[in-house]
Amino acid sequence: MAKRSAPEVNAGSMADIAFLLLIFFLVTTTIETDTGLNRKLPPIDDTETEPPIIKQKNIFTVQLNRNNQLLVEEQLMELKDLRKAAVEFLDNGGGTGTDGCTYCKGKRDPASSDNPDKAIISLKNDRETKYGIYISVQNELVAAYNQLRDRRAMELYGKTLKEMEANYADVNWIGNKDDLKEKIEKVKIEYPQKLSEVQ
Amino acid sequence: MAKFNKKKSGNLPAINTASLPDIVFMLLFFFMVATTMRDTTLKIENKLPFADQVEKLDKKDLVMYIYIGKPQEAFQAQYGKESRIQLNDKFADLSEIKAFIASERASKREELIPFLTVALKVDEGANMGLVSDVKQELRKENALKINYTTKKGDVADN
């Protein structure tokens, strides 16, 4: 008697089942955005101590009005020019003596900021300002800091800060991580992010 | 002679679809791996702004989400067209943020509480007034680590 082979299972509807599952997952899931601008809010200070006096020249005021217009240091400015203006202010290094800045490459204008440690960017916004515009401005200001930090890291260690941080997070990176952490901190201290969001 | 009498029908041969399920399963697995299930149903419009200096939020379990935006059309009759706050699955008032933060903190292990981050998912059309109020409320609760969630892109599109 001839050996009877097992009948083949019809797999024609397998594709339909898989499509059904696929469509279910497509509908119920979203690719979540998990990127953003990290900021730290200032704690509420109840103490009655006098705030330290900050020289006007060390403050870079950025204001946004209800019509989403940008006022930088009392002058109307376009968003695209903001990054350059912020870099110029932070990197000015106009101070002398102990206030001086050895690594700044700015114009050393005595009427602008003393050094990056003292330079403060103050961002004010109106209640009617659009959130999207506010984020654009925040982004440009953070970009100014990142640009200066990257430049400094490039000078000192031949790598951008982003690369160094990526190395630090990378498990397979070969090298001294404590040393790297110190280097990252050093660059961050030389250009500290002093961005005040006034209420 | 039957041997040489090949059938010459005009029909096209059927395409073999045996590998189709494999392809579809591959797609399915890609989507299962690359996406996460929505844990809250959005009742507001939430079109995030763009930024290019973004950092990645790691440790997803240590993030609290606050959504702000205009109510979706289905809810506009009830809640109006002004921007509202959404916490978890429902609309909330400013005063409810305090309880929200407290409950989120209570659900985490104590040593992890300082690492909790608040992700503000704000619609790009929202007004800063409400966002400032939320920020002030967060300061009161001492939840100081915040993240303005943005999409990666050019700021000129905002």
Detailed description of the structure:
Chain B: The chain crosses the membrane at residues 12-34. Chain B: It is a single-pass membrane protein; Single-pass type II membrane protein. Chain B: InterPro entries: ExbD. Chain B: Belongs to the ExbD/TolR family. The complex is a heterodimer of chains A (199) and B (158). Chain A has 199 residues and is of the alpha/beta class. Chain A has one domain (56-197). Chain A has helices spanning 14-28, 79-90, 131-157, 161-169, 177-190, and strands at residues 29-30, 35-40, 59-64, 70-72, 75-77, 120-125, 195-197. Chain A has a 5-stranded mixed beta sheet with strand order 5-4-3-6-7, covered by helices on one side. In chain A, a hairpin with a 5-residue loop joins strand 3 (59-64) and strand 4 (70-72). The longest helix of chain A has 27 residues, at 131-157. With 158 residues, chain B is an alpha/beta fold. Chain B has a domain at 50-157: Nucleotidyltransferase, domain 5, CATH 3.30.420.270. The longest helix of chain B has 15 residues, at 20-34. The radius of gyration of chain B is 25 Å and the shape is elongated. Chains A and B meet through helix 1, strand 1, strand 2 and helix 3 of A and helix 1, strand 1, strand 2, strand 3 and strand 7 of B. Strand 1 of chain A pairs antiparallel with strand 1 of chain B.
Task: Please tag this protein with its features.
heterodimer; A: 199 residues; alpha/beta; 5-stranded mixed β-sheet; 5 helices; B: 158 residues; Nucleotidyltransferase, domain 5; two-stranded parallel ribbon; 4 helices; 9 strands; 21% strand
Short description:
The complex is a heterodimer of chains A (199) and B (158). Chain A has five helices and seven strands.
Low-confidence runs of chain B: none
Tell me the domain tally of chain A. Answer: 1
What is the fold named in CATH at topology level of one domain in chain B?
A: Nucleotidyltransferase, domain 5
Q: Averaging pLDDT over every residue of chain B, what do you get?
A: 84
Query: What is the CATH architecture annotation of one domain in chain B?
Result: 2-Layer Sandwich
Helix coverage percent of chain B: 25-40%
Question: Number of helix segments of chain A?
Answer: 5
Number-wise, the strands of chain A total 7
Main sheet summary of chain A: 5 strands, mixed
Q: Radius of gyration of chain B over alpha carbons?
A: 25 Å
Mean pLDDT of chain A: 83
Low-confidence runs of chain A (pLDDT<50, min 5 residues)? none
Structural class of chain A comes to alpha/beta
What's the assembly state of these chains?
A: heterodimer
Radius of gyration of chain A, in angstroms, nearest whole number? 27 Å
Give the distance, in angstroms, between the N- and C-terminal Cα atoms of chain B: 78 Å
Number of helices of chain B: 4
Identify the overall geometry of chain A: elongated
Helix and strand composition category of chain B? alpha/beta
